Structures are given as structure tokens and as C-alpha cells.
Amino acid sequence: MLGLIFLLSSLVAVFHHLAIVRYWYWIYAWFDLVMHFAGGFLIAVIILYIGLYSGHVEWKAPRKEMFLVTFGGMLVVGLLWEGFEMVVGAMTVAYDQYVFDTILDLVMDSVGAVAAFLLLVRTPLLSSVHALPQHVSENVEERL
């Protein structure tokens, strides 16, 4: 699972860097949405790793609470990112479109987080590649 987090983090970082230096955020309006989806997905995977896979936290919450914690954590990170963009002036749209762009960015963060949750909790897609730890599979099965 750490390998997946490292791979996703690396891809997000590399594509973000390329988007900055090659002006992809300004040339391709849709690229920002893809990056927000990927960012929301990544943040959700990290939260789920900490709660389910790391073994450092014993997360025995029902699936609904797991989702709320994952979604809430992603929302906090997304809002902090949007605040950072505003403070440093890294907005990719005109100021009068900023509110709409911010809402759309947070929606894409949310869609990414929901996709990660569905893949890793609802239907443990990666279980064939990376066996779920015993405490994880018991927790997930109990709450399905």
C-alpha cells in the first residue's frame, strides 16, 4: 500500500510540475480538474492507509463513519489547498470566476475521494494485488 501511495504522490507531483512549467493549467482548462480528482484520490488513499492498513491506528468504525472521516479529511486538505492558491496568487482563472472554480475544484477532490473509498473499502479491488491485513478484512467484512 505504501508503494501505491508513493506512486500516486510521485505522479501527482510530476504532472503538477509539468503543468506549471508547460502552462497546461492555462492551455488545457480541464487539466486542473484531472489534477484535483487525482489529489482527492491520493488524500483519501493516505487517510485510508493510516486508518486501515498501517496497523498504527485500530479503526473499527462502521463504513459510514470511515467514509465521513475520509471525506472530511480530504475536504480539509482541499480547502487548505484552495486557500494556499489564493494567498500566493496561483489562481488559474480570473478573480470573478474564482468562486465557481473553487467549488468545481472541491467537487473534483470529492469525486476522487469517493472513488478511492469505493475501490479500497467498498470493493477492495487491490486485495488481489496486495492482500488485506487480517484486521482490515475483518473490519471491512463486519461492516458490509
Work out the count of structural domains: 1
Number of strands: 0
Listing every helix as H and every strand as E from the N terminus to the C terminus, the arrangement reads: HHHHHH
Mean pLDDT: 83
Inertia-based shape? globular
Report what the structure shows.
- The structure is a single chain.
- The protein is mostly helical.
- The chain has one domain.
- Helix 1 packs antiparallel against helix 3, helix 3 runs parallel beside helix 5 and helix 4 runs antiparallel to helix 5.
- The longest helix is centred in the middle third of the chain and has 26 residues.
- It starts with a helix and ends with a helix.
- About 3% of the residues have low confidence.
What key attributes describe this structure?
144 residues; 0% strand; single chain; globular; 75% helix
Sum this structure up briefly.
This protein has 144 residues and is mainly alpha-helical.
How are the secondary structure elements laid out?
Blueprint lengths: L1 H20 L2 H4 L3 H23 L9 H26 L9 H25 L11 H10 L1
Helix pairs in contact: 1-3, 3-4, 3-5, 4-5
